[in-house]
Design goal:
With 72 residues, the chain is mainly alpha-helical. It is built from 1 helix and no strands. The radius of gyration is 19 Å and the shape is elongated. Keywords: Metal-binding, Zinc, Zinc-finger. This is AN1-type domain-containing protein.
Length: 72
């Protein structure tokens, strides 16, 4: 028996969910190609995602910051 197709978790959408690219790590939903982005499926954890991305970017920028050596 072939594996059952998972339906999109977005309300009123009858499309099949995309494997891997349609899985939302923030709300654990499974979405079709039209709703796979956080903004498109109105992810309830969108603010957490933005905050996490901001913190990762800030850490990366601090790590790559050029150090000024005084007295040279």
């Amino acid at each position: 028996m072939p594996p059952r197709k998972i339906k999109c978790s977005f309300s009123d959408c009858k499309s099949a969910a995309q494997r891997i690219s349609g899985d939302c790590a923030f709300c654990q939903g499974h979405y079709c190609n039209n709703h796979r982005l956080l903004e498109d499926h109105k992810c309830r954890n969108l603010d957490d995602c933005k905050k996490e991305a901001f913190e990762q970017n800030a850490m990366q920028l601090n790590k790559e910051r050029t150090q000024v050596i005084k007295g040279v």
